[in-house]
Specification:
With about 475 residues, the chain is α+β, with helices and mostly antiparallel strands. Among the domains are: about 195-255, no CATH class; about 270-280 and about 335-395, no CATH class; about 400-475, Arc Repressor Mutant, subunit A, CATH 1.10.10. About 50% of the residues lie in helices and about 10% in strands. It has 23 helices and nine strands. The protein has helices spanning about 20-30, 30-45, 55-65, 75, 110-115, 120-130, 135-145, 160-165, 170-180, 195-205, 210-215, 220-225, 225-235, 235-250, 295-300, 310-345, 345-350, 360-370, 375-380, 415-425, 435-445, 450-460, 465-475, and strands spanning about 50-55, 95, 270-275, 280-285, 290-295, 385, 390-395, 400, 410. The strands form three sheets. Strands 4-3-6-7 form a four-stranded mixed β-sheet. It has a three-stranded antiparallel β-sheet with strand order 1-5-2. Strands 8-9 form a two-stranded antiparallel sheet. Helix 3 (about 55-65) packs across helix 16 (about 310-345), helix 16 (about 310-345) crosses helix 19 (about 375-380) and helix 21 crosses helix 22. The longest helix has about 40 residues, at about 310-345. The chain starts with 18 loop residues before the first helix and ends with a helix.
């Protein structure tokens, strides 16, 4: 047998996220206040950046951001995960409104800053992803799955669609999801309530066959059908009572610990104001700095005769400055593009209040703006919008559709929740509405809901049952 060497050439596809691309993604997720903090840090570290803060300067920056004619940021990362174009060749000062979070060299903020700022659920999961997943392509799959995790901690991704979009096998997506479901908080990444509870029980070593059967029949538990559950689970009534007690001690929405409600007086990222019979959308320029690339200074200090290492350092800093300006420009225009579409679709809400809120999901906005769903999600994440009805989270405009009566117009789930709240607020001690009566009142308004759905919405609003409300009114009276 002879031994020999052979050289094979093989092509393969890889999902690659460049540092610039990662930075652009982070920039889009930041709030205006985070933008200001990051720019302040960059101004202190980069000799070729100059800037100041103020409403007039911020307004100029936004105009520059909207009017550059660059391709939207979405086109830089969707589909193929390509490296963005290089920094613009500048021969004059370039200005734009703001950006923030980890630096261009993936530097982390100092510990004092990191502990002072509240961490989002997505940030918390991404930190764990970096530690748990080494394979670059699987890490990209993890990034994508994390972007679909909602505020309650549930993964809303279609695994087959995710695999097709990223060009990987579905088994790989499932493997990464299984890893994600081992992250903290326990239960995160579940696709439904039963899976969320199962993940928490498994960690406690309490997911035995009887408990698994109980989770498979949560609908019967909701109906109070304990007799059939005793039979299905193969336990007696005392054991079933203990199992139910264990389930009620679990957290059905583990992600909410990372999503505190906005504080009163929170600073909005966007303003929506009436304008000549329509609505005007603007970034809150008072919270954005003006950023300038000082090309003249670079030309002066980077001339001939420099030590090569110093010249390289200056070139890197100048490139980073240009990239920051370009990325912030794209961030501003992407957010405005999404906001303008949402405002146009939700004009009725702006004019008439929450009862007129239309159903809207990320996919609809993505299609309407020709952006990717993940881009829309990032552009709205954590942002606050000042409207005539008050300051609301940008995500407030997104609500699933609930079918209308007799196939009529669908209604936003949030609008229905607020209608339920209004009905309960109008109750008197002598006229407390049962869930069935609420169903009838909603039906009269063209909102067709099942009793269990009304009960779910009522509970999500923290409204007690009719029996508890009647008792409380009697005691207070």
């Amino acid at each position: 047998m002879s031994l020999g060497l052979r050289l094979d050439v093989k092509q393969s596809q890889q999902l690659v996220m460049t540092p610039q691309l990662q930075q652009a993604i982070k920039l889009l997720q930041m709030t205006n206040l985070e933008v200001g903090g990051y720019v302040d840090q960059e101004l202190a570290e980069n000799p070729f950046l100059d800037g100041d803060r103020g409403s007039e300067a911020g307004a100029d920056g936004v105009e520059a951001a909207v009017g550059t004619g660059e391709a939207p940021l979405d086109e830089r990362w969707d589909g193929g995960w390509h490296q963005p174009e290089g920094p613009p060749a500048s021969d004059q000062l370039v200005q734009v409104g703001g950006g923030r979070q980890a630096g261009f060299d993936d530097e982390l903020p100092d510990l004092e800053q990191r502990f002072a700022e509240p961490k989002s659920l997505h940030d918390h999961l991404i930190e764990q992803l970096h530690l748990a997943v080494d394979d670059p392509s699987e890490r990209v799959v993890g990034f994508h799955l994390i972007e679909t995790v909602d505020e309650a901690g549930y993964c809303r991704a279609d695994l087959a669609e995710t695999a097709a979009r990223l060009g990987v096998e579905r088994t790989r997506v499932e493997r990464v999801l299984a890893e994600l479901q081992r992250f903290d908080p326990t239960g995160v990444g579940a696709r439904d309530l039963a899976e969320c509870l199962a993940l928490q029980l498994r960690e406690r070593d309490r997911l035995d066959p009887a408990m698994a059967r109980l989770l498979a029949h949560l609908d019967r538990l909701a109906k109070g059908d304990r007799k059939s559950l005793v039979r299905l689970c193969g336990v007696d009534e005392d054991d079933l009572a203990d199992m139910i007690h264990e389930i009620r001690a679990l957290d059905p929405r583990p992600g909410l610990a990372f999503a505190p409600p906005p504080e009163a007086g929170a600073v909005p990222d966007l303003w929506v104001t009436p304008n000549r019979g329509g609505w005007r959308v603007e970034l809150n320029t008072a919270t954005l700095p003006r950023v300038l690339v000082d090309v003249d200074y670079y030309t002066q200090v980077a001339g001939p005769g420099l030590d090569p290492s110093v010249r390289q350092y200056f070139a890197e800093r100048f490139q980073a400055a240009n990239w920051l300006v370009k990325a912030l420009d794209q961030r501003a225009r992407t957010i405005l593009k999404v906001a303008e579409y949402v405002v146009e679709e939700q004009k009725a809400f702006l004019e008439s209040g929450v009862s007129a809120l239309k159903p809207m999901v990320l996919r609809q906005v993505a299609e309407g703006t020709a952006l990717h769903e993940s881009t829309v999600s990032r552009a709205t994440a954590g942002k606050l919008v000042a409207t005539p009805s008050g300051v609301v989270p940008f995500k407030y405009f997104f609500s699933n559709a609930v079918g209308g009566e007799d196939g009529g117009e669908a209604h936003a789930a949030e609008a229905i929740r607020q209608e339920i709240k209004a009905l309960v607020d109008r109750e008197t001690a002598d006229a407390v509405l049962s869930d069935d009566q609420i169903v009838k009142s909603l039906k009269d308004k063209g909102m067709a809901l099942a009793r269990r759905t009304v009960a779910k919405y009522r509970e999500s609003l923290g409204i007690p049952s009719s029996v508890a409300r009647r008792r409380a009114k009697a005691m207070s009276g």
